[in-house]
Specification:
By secondary structure, this protein is mainly alpha-helical. It has 18 helices and 2 strands.
């Protein structure tokens, strides 16, 4: 145990930095809960005290609220938090910090699995912990952070070839935030086909059964419970290509950030200006590496924008939240590439 702690001392420090910056005045900054947080907190408390949501549904998997259907993972997480801390803003936001911490640790493991380089892995987690993009979402009660945490861990177990565990985590991610209902099949589809081609039948069969079972409540929502109304209300009728490109714009990434005040630190881009240099170097490092695993990082970055691109509000930091850890990893590769040739590490 002592050796494990010693070997991961820097990661522990990164986690402590994350916790300090997220928990500090979390109940007062932002100054009041957003309407999404209020809805999540109320429904969680309603289920905690009565077993039913605000509409009288017993232990639902989809929560009707403000013209949309919220997903269950974060709400039930808040239920656990409220059982300890009551109906408070702290209780609503605390699970986001926990999922954020899991995301930091998960990213370290994913990057180490991809690169076998501890320095790059630590840099990735550190940059992710301090990036403005992740800062605001990991100290407010957003469903997206839960989805991101499960998605990152699903990728880790996918890389370790624990397919069934990975699929389970992908499914939980899809029941955490709607963006991951789009991203999960885009990632899982090719992976399961690959394993079928390799004649790895048992895990693929079990995974297929789990996926089909998970689709039943989703089918019911969109076909019987008017869940399509929300999709139609946020869906974009303008050019997807234009929407897609906006999420890579300099104005969004480095100058102004998301136009929604709830999704940004005022007068700050989603990333730091210095990231421009390191992102360029990181992409060059990947391209020069000729490593298919690293190429998959760029592929995942391109996929991560799709949930934002198909909706009206663009660019959209929350719906494209998967970009944040990926860009942090690419920046870390850029720093490593820079240091390697300047300091001969």
């Amino acid at each position: 145990m002592i050796r494990i702690c010693k070997n991961n001392f820097i990661l522990i420090l990164i986690c402590l930095l994350f916790l300090i910056t997220r928990l500090y005045k979390i109940d007062t900054i932002p100054s009041s809960v957003y309407w999404d947080e209020a809805s999540i907190g109320y429904n969680a408390y309603s289920v905690l005290t009565t077993g039913k949501d605000e509409w009288g549904e017993t232990l639902p998997l989809h929560f009707r609220a403000f013209g949309e259907f919220k997903l269950p993972v974060y709400i039930y997480s808040v239920l656990v938090s409220e059982s300890a801390f009551g109906l408070t803003s702290f209780a609503v936001r605390l699970p986001s910090v926990v999922y954020g911490l899991l995301s930091i640790i998960g990213l370290y493991l994913v990057v180490f699995k991809l690169t076998k380089n501890k320095l790059i892995s630590l840099l990735s987690s550190y940059l992710f912990a301090i990036t403005p993009w992740f800062f605001i979402f990991s100290r407010t009660g957003y469903e997206a952070v839960a989805g991101l945490a499960f998605f990152i861990w699903a990728l880790y177990f996918l890389l370790t070839k624990k397919i069934v565990i990975s699929v389970l985590l992908f499914i939980i991610s899809a029941y955490s935030y709607n963006s991951f209902r789009i991203l999960t099949p885009l990632v899982l589809g090719p992976v399961l086909l690959f394993y079928l081609f390799k004649k790895v039948y048992a895990p693929v069969l079990i995974s297929g059964v789990l996926i089909i079972m998970s689709l039943v409540p989703i089918y019911k929502l969109y076909k019987e419970d008017s869940g399509l109304a929300r999709l139609q209300s946020v869906g974009s009728k303008s050019g997807m290509v234009s929407n897609y490109v906006k999420n890579f714009s300099l104005e969004f990434l480095f100058i102004k950030g998301d136009t929604n005040p709830r999704s940004q630190i005022p007068n700050t881009g989603q990333l730091y200006y210095v990231d421009i240099l390191f992102l360029i170097l990181g992409i060059l490092y990947i391209l020069k590496s000729k490593d298919l695993k690293l190429y998959s990082v760029l592929a995942l970055l391109l996929l991560s924008v799709i949930p934002a691109a198909i909706t009206k509000e663009n660019p959209h930091a929350l719906r494209a939240i998967l970009m944040s850890p990926i860009l942090s990893m690419i920046s870390a590769l850029g720093i490593y590439y820079f240091a390697k040739y300047i300091f001969y590490i």
